[in-house]
Write a structure and sequence with these properties.
The chain is of the alpha+beta class. Helices cover 17% and strands 37% of the residues. It contains one helix and five strands.
């Protein structure tokens, strides 16, 4: 599991993930979202993450 900061709002597993918020998701999805510019993977020490 990794933390991502959302660049856009999207639905994920029935939950609404808001733009600008930080969420913990699986690494495969995080990498796919980062390559599509949906979210940015962040270092856990970079910010104080807020999970779902």
């Amino acid at each position: 599991m990794v933390y991502v900061k959302m660049n856009v709002q999207t639905a994920y597993h029935g939950e609404l993930l808001r733009e600008g918020k930080t969420y913990e998701i699986d690494e495969t999805t995080a990498e796919r979202w980062q390559s599509s510019n949906i979210a940015k993977i962040i270092d856990q020490n970079q910010e104080n993450p807020k999970t779902k």
